[in-house]
Amino acid sequence: MTFIELRKLSGMNQKQFCEYFKIPSRTVQHWEAGTRQCPEYLLELMEYKLEQEGITAKEHKMNNIVNDVARTEISTRKILELQSQGMNISEIAEAIGCTKYTVRNRLKSLNLI
Question: Residue 97 sits in which domain range?
Answer without folding.
Answer: 60-109
